[in-house]
């Protein structure tokens, strides 16, 4: 029986010539958009990935949760301000990110390794570099994507505060100025944290190590700096408080914004850096961001194929 | 349409815009026959290297390698560490050569790296797939990384995955795929942007015999059906003999040999014969050897060093008649033929009957 089956088949196809079995290989003659388009594609893929979009449901949970946690306190503050007809918001725009720094650190720790360690671990990096993009394009796309993701995370609650403040009919010029100062501050914070997170994460292909290392660097440095500042404050050597603040990322941002963005400092005793010291803060911040970029470039020059 | 390609090759010196290439159709859509492509494109070089050298502080990975590769399927054979991967890196413009020059599709690797990578596909030897995304998502992303607009990237991904033989499973995360399916995804990402040349690094690694044959068939189709030239590396000459039009053998960074597969098979088809002993012929192997010798057959050696070497005869097959001759000789002697098989060659064996000095010089190859 089984032998007869194939013998019958040759007769069949002659009847229906019109059927298309296989359309065959089609070549591609359309546009090839080149290097900058590829870099932009990598940027948008990485940015979406930072919120778990285009990835599994499981990987959406943490970033979305942290985003909600960032925004809910702002929403509550706004609700209170509107209900009590307060004269001002309970927290400054520039202060919000400092208060919520734990959430921001957690986000960087979870998403920086997601962005770069995965490519290293699964050796996808060689595939990128076998395409038109160069090392610098990869680094820039990843850096920009994580910084943008952080900016979204930190700017969204400020937007909630601002809209709420306008609804509560608070002074428009005051609020707009505060909001703008807040945006500059979180932009700087996003760049700095993204750079630090990526540099640390790009050293290891293991995601767990990356997460732990980022958290350790951010919290230990902050813990050490604020302890030393408290001691300095207790010994009334207020002059050294500002200088100590240079050694942790979040106090660095705090220093910059209290010197130039009209923020009240979160340093012990509310002693922010003076204008001269503030310049050092800005230089150190920008220098750190540049150093992170340079280190990433060096790291990826070796990864290649 | 290949003739258009020819004209462009002649004009390449004056072609300023690297994208001009991609705007001109290179192949007719639909069905093409391999024959037409071979005859009209035959004198064009896809890859050309000229005394290409790559030296690292302690190792010389490539040593004055000069080779021309035409369209078609070309095998690059060499032991591990022979310089295959280094050559691929240089050809993709990712690693500068210490000395000498190389051109891919008429573009200099030293200056036109990005343009080369836009029209060349690369399939690495190692695993390179993230397990938590589906094949479709991954290949679409890779298509965009090659510069394809979003819609085109989706269409080409669906097409390419179908061509490499992935159907419903392409929507599942890659982590659950078999090795064979993963190799197909890797191949798909190298083909998705419709390159003019693909570089495949050990594509049959880790596959079982059936998967190996399917992969080799697919590689053959990349040229005959898709019209894309292929450079495929392997450390097994045997499997490349069946797939490639041309084989290049490198060892210790040096070119050992570059010739068409037909030349190769003529020299290298070796038969291994093993027979039983009988009372009339207590040493059956010797009896067959003498009988074959009397009929004018050359016995290569008895495979010294191989397991059971004393009982295996190796001889060069000149064609169908050799098989008949062996059968007749064994039957006449009244012996039992235990086996008669084509030997799969390891590259070192290719040079057994080549000049001995060269073999000595590359002694570690194998």
The largest β sheet of chain B comes out as: 6 strands, mixed
Structural class of chain A: mainly alpha
Shape of chain A: globular
The SSE string of chain B, one letter per element, is HHHEEEHEEHEHHHEHEHEEHEHEEHEHH
Give the largest chain-chain interface (CB within 8 Å).
A-B, 38 and 50 residues
How many strands of chain B? Answer: 14
What percent strand of chain A? under 5%
Q: How many DSSP-defined strands of chain A?
A: 0
Q: What overall form of chain B do the CA principal axes indicate?
A: globular
Rounded radius of gyration of chain A (Å): 26 Å
Number of helices, where a helix is a run of at least 4 consecutive DSSP H or I residues of chain A: 12
- Secondary-structure-derived class of chain B: alpha/beta
Helix fraction of chain B, binned, reads 25-40%
The pLDDT mean of chain B sits at 79
Terminal CA distance of chain B reads: 42 Å
> Kindly state the mean pLDDT of chain A as a whole number?
89
Low-pLDDT parts of chain B are 1-42, 352-366
Strand and helix order of chain A: HHHHHHHHHHHH
Main sheet attributes: strand count, strand direction, barrel closure of chain A = none
Widest β-sheet, arrangement of strands of chain B: 6-7-8-3-9-10
What does this molecule look like?
- The complex is a heterodimer of chains A (305) and B (366).
- Chain A has 305 residues and is an all-alpha fold.
- Chain A has one domain.
- Chain A has helices at residues 4-8, 34-50, 57-83, 93-99, 101-121, 125-129, 135-167, 172-201, 207-234, 238-244, 249-260, 275-303.
- The longest helix of chain A is centred in the middle third of the chain and has 33 residues, at 135-167.
- Chain A is globular.
- With 366 residues, chain B is an alpha/beta fold.
- Chain B has a six-stranded mixed beta sheet, with helices on both faces.
- Chain B is globular.
- The two termini of chain B are 42 Å apart.
- Chains A and B meet through α2 and α6 of A and α4, α5, α6 and α7 of B.
């Amino acid at each position: 029986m089984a032998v007869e089956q194939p013998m019958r088949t040759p007769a069949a196809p002659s009847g229906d010539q019109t059927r298309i079995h296989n359309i065959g290989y089609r070549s591609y003659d359309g546009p090839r958009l080149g290097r900058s388009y590829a870099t932009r594609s990598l940027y948008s893929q990485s940015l979406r990935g930072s919120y778990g979009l285009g990835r599994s449901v499981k990987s959406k949970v943490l970033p979305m949760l942290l985003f909600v946690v960032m925004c809910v306190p702002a929403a509550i503050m706004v609700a209170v301000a509107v209900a009590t007809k307060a004269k001002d918001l309970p927290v400054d725009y520039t202060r919000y990110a400092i208060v919520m720094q734990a959430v921001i650190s957690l986000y960087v720790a979870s998403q920086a390794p997601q962005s770069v360690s995965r490519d290293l671990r699964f050796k996808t990096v060689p595939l990128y570099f076998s395409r038109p993009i160069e090392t610098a394009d990869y680094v820039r796309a990843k850096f920009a994507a994580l910084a943008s993701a952080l900016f979204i995370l930190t700017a969204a609650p400020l937007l909630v505060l601002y809209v709420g403040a306008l609804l509560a009919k608070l002074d428009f010029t005051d609020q707009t100025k505060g909001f703008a100062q807040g945006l500059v501050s979180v932009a700087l914070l996003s760049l700095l944290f993204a750079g630090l997170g990526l540099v640390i994460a790009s050293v290891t292909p293991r995601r767990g190590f990356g997460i732990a290392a980022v958290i350790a660097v951010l919290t230990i440095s902050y813990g050490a700096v604020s302890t030393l500042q408290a001691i300095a404050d207790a010994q009334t050597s207020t002059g050294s408080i500002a200088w100590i603040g240079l050694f942790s990322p979040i106090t660095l941002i705090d220093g910059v914004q209290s010197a130039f963005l009209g923020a009240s400092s979160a340093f012990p005793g509310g002693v922010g850096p003076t204008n001269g010291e503030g310049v050092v803060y800005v230089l150190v911040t920008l220098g750190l961001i540049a150093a992170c970029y340079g280190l990433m470039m060096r790291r990826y020059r070796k990864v290649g194929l | 349409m290949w003739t258009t390609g020819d004209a462009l090759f002649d004009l390449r010196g004056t072609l300023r815009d690297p994208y001009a290439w991609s705007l001109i159709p290179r192949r007719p859509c639909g069905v093409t026959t391999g024959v037409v492509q071979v005859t009209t494109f035959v004198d064009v070089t896809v890859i050309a290297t000229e005394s290409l050298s790559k030296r690292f502080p302690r190792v010389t990975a490539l040593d004055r390698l000069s080779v021309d590769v035409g369209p078609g399927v070309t095998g690059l054979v060499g032991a591990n560490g022979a310089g295959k991967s280094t050559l691929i890196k240089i050809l993709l413009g990712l690693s500068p050569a210490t000395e000498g020059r190389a051109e891919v599709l008429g573009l200099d690797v030293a200056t036109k790296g990005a343009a080369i990578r836009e029209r060349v596909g690369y399939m690495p030897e190692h695993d390179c797939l993230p397990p938590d995304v589906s094949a479709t998502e991954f290949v679409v992303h890779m298509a965009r990384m090659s510069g394809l607009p979003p819609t085109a990237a989706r269409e080409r991904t669906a097409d390419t995955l179908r061509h490499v033989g992935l159907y419903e499973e392409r929507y599942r995360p890659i982590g659950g795929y078999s090795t064979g399916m993963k190799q197909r995804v890797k191949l798909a990402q190298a083909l998705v942007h419709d390159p003019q040349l693909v570089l495949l690094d050990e594509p049959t690694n880790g596959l079982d015999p059936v998967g190996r044959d399917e992969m080799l068939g697919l590689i053959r189709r990349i040229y005959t059906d898709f019209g894309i030239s292929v450079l495929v590396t392997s450390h097994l000459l045997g499997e490349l003999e069946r797939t490639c039009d041309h084989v290049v053998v490198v060892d210790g960074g040096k070119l050992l040999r570059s010739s068409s597969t037909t030349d190769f098979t003529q020299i290298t088809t070796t038969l291994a014969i093993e027979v039983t002993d009988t009372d009339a012929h207590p040493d059956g192997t010797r009896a067959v050897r003498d009988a074959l010798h009397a009929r004018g057959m050359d016995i290569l050696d008895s495979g010294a060093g191989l397991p059971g070497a004393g009982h295996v005869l190796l001889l060069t097959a000149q064609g169908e008649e050799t098989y008949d001759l062996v059968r007749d000789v064994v039957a006449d002697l009244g012996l039992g033929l235990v086996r008669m098989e084509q030997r799969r060659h390891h590259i070192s064996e290719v040079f057994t009957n080549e000049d001995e000095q060269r073999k000595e010089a590359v002694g570690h190859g194998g």
